[in-house]
Amino acid sequence: MLYFYFTVYQFKKCDYMNAFDYEVAVIGGSHAGLAAAHTLGRSKRRTIVFDAGTPRNSAAQSLHNFSTGDGASPNALRSIALAHLNMFENVRYLPQPVSSVNAAATGFQLTAGNEILTVRKIILATGVTDKLFAIEGLAALWGRTVLHCTYCHGWEARDQPALVLVKGAIAWDVAITISHWNPQLTFLLNGSTVEDAEKKTYLQQRGWRLIETPVIKLTRREEMTEALLADGQVVAAPVVYTKPVQVKFNNELAVKLGCEISKSGSVLTDGAMQTSVQGVFAAGDVAHPGYHLVAEAIATGHKAAAFCNNQLCKEDYR
């Protein structure tokens, strides 16, 4: 009789689990999403990964400040991570974006292309999109010879003269860190100015040029990047740093689901990478306002998946 009750329980449990097309949907197929899918695969969870195919660092030739993988190609790392998913027959990779998502009964319903699928849990790893200055040649050099992060590229560019292409409003803050790696700076303020007179004077007293003339074109010539200004002047240096005009958080699905969003646009999570909506987790760049490193994306992907699986285990156990 005890055996009979046990088998009935198992049948009901499996019936509930199989009522969904997948147990977990990972939305985003870059470093965070693939890491999450790896952990879920190892956890025997029926998982589907949706990939829009627009990773943030696809233009970068190499990534740095990544222990055991310093200098590796980010695209190559993604290819390895994707290949590793082949060992898990319970993980499906779908190279399509999710166009809509809704809460449905005890889970969620997603639409991707012509498919409508139901899942129990969601991990959002949708990342961010960098909006750049509208300067000819900038997008082609972005992530290659035009850099944005000293922690990622500062060591390779250390001690060389650098152009710093930023708005005057953030020139002071940017100078604090970049000057540690590159003491000789020329600021291209691209039509803006440093409005704080005291800060402006200090920057100039350091021997740094503050050029307010708009930049119209960037060109890489041999070992130098040249900036053509609107007045015809050309300024060049081996290193160029810039910041995106805007870091757009790809949070549309999170907003649709009702997840709480920070002022910057990142999806708020707790220590378990759980959003404010039960059953929805977030990982990678979309889940932090500014700490955006490949190592962090991978770590939070694994973390979100582990806590997601723990949540599923507790529900199934009851």
UniProtKB/TrEMBL annotation:
Pfam families cross-referenced by the UniProt entry: Pyr_redox_2
Alphabetical keyword list: Flavoprotein, Oxidoreductase
SUPFAM superfamilies registered for this protein in UniProt: FAD/NAD(P)-binding domain
Domain of life: Bacteria
Every FAD/NAD(P)-binding domain range: 22-301
GO molecular function: oxidoreductase activity
Keyword Oxidoreductase appears in the UniProt entry: yes
Keyword Lyase attributed: no
Protein name: FAD/NAD(P)-binding domain-containing protein
